[in-house]
Amino acid sequence: MSETAGAVSAPILVERDGAVARVVLNRPDRLNSFNVDMHRALRAAMEAIAADDSVRAVLLTGAGRGFCAGQDLADRAVAPGAARPDLGASVDTWYNPLIRLIRTMEKPVICAVNGVAAGAGANIALACDMVLAARSATFVQAFAKIGLVPDSGGTWVLPRLVGEARARGLAFTAEPIKAEQAEAWGMIWKAVDDADLAAEAVALAERLAAAPTHGLALIKRALFLSSTNTLDAQLDLERDLQREAGSTPDYAEGVAAFVEKRKPVFTGRKG
Ligand code: T3D
């Protein structure tokens, strides 16, 4: 069953197909850049999805020719002499909670980058667990062009994904990087032909939604915490998570199916 929340012009569309929730950024005439309405709608959609155990994988993408051009700059133009907006407040209220939500959501979040991903749009994509991108898509750390700092976790995730030198180059020059280069640099999972992006992203989301999804949530937590943990702390964490994973019905099912030489049927239940 597929359902659409909100009117056709809603800034965010949410479609359910089985255990997959597809979330579409829907301001195509502005390359899906963020205004407050879109922030609010995306927050509500992602929070509802995070709390819904029947959703076992999330697919985030954009409507039209772009994925997301970051902040809507039309909302940032001020008349000479007028008070400037507090961008820290905007980051604190909208962008940071979104990145934290994606990173801590106990289910895989796949991003299908269908076109340009710029500014916060690029870093929201990179915050997702797996990123597929159309070959024609580009990633742009656009911030330096307007005197800003990469946000939405960009300064954290970029050096980890592509290394310090490339992170500096991308952030200082604000040059676009093509999807294939992003894949070659390890910034994203895969670049695919434009015509195949939607189908490949849905297939991946369906595959993960049918996997032992609580186990995937524990993997997500372990990988996230590994970037700040010492090896000792990480070994302890792996022990604790393995104890939890080993008590799930999906582990019992996986072992039984292996022994019985049949295909496992996982539920994603915690216990
Ligand atoms: O402010 C805060 O709250 C702090 C947080 C900030 C987070 C940020 O994301 S800051 C960075 C903001 N984003 C940018 O600086 C990117 C600006 N856009 C571009 O550099 C280019 O548009 C792109 C590289 C993304 C795409 O280029 P191109 O040539 O493919 O498309 P275009 O012709 O530039 O854009 C198409 C339309 O979308 C155009 O409108 P028009 O002329 O057809 O009416 C353009 O104005 C509009 N558009 C694109 N990006 C934005 C936008 N409108 C508003 N805000 C945008 N960010």
Folded structure, characterized:
- The chain has 271 residues and is α/β, with parallel strands linked by helices.
- Helix content is 45%, strand content 15%.
- It has ten helices and ten strands.
- The strands form two sheets. The protein has a six-stranded mixed sheet with strand order 1-2-3-5-7-10, with helices on both faces. The protein has a four-stranded mixed sheet with strand order 4-6-8-9.
- Strand 1 (12-17) and strand 2 (20-25) form a beta hairpin.
- Helix 8 packs antiparallel against helix 9.
- The longest helix is centred in the middle third of the chain and has 18 residues, at 87-104.
- Residues 30-31, 33, 69-74, 76, 87, 90-91, 95, 116, 118-120, 140, 142-143, 146, 148, 151 line the site of ligand T3D.
Topology, element by element:
Elements: E1 12-17, E2 20-25, H1 36-51, E3 57-62, E4 66-68, H2 87-104, E5 109-113, E6 116-118, H3 120-127, E7 130-134, E8 138-140, H4 154-162, H5 164-173, E9 177-178, H6 179-184, E10 190-192, H7 197-209, H8 213-226, H9 231-246, H10 249-259
Parallel strand pairs: 2-3, 3-5, 4-6, 5-7, 6-8, 7-10
Antiparallel strand pairs: 1-2, 8-9
Helix pairs in contact: 1-2, 4-5, 8-9
The structure holds ligand T3D.
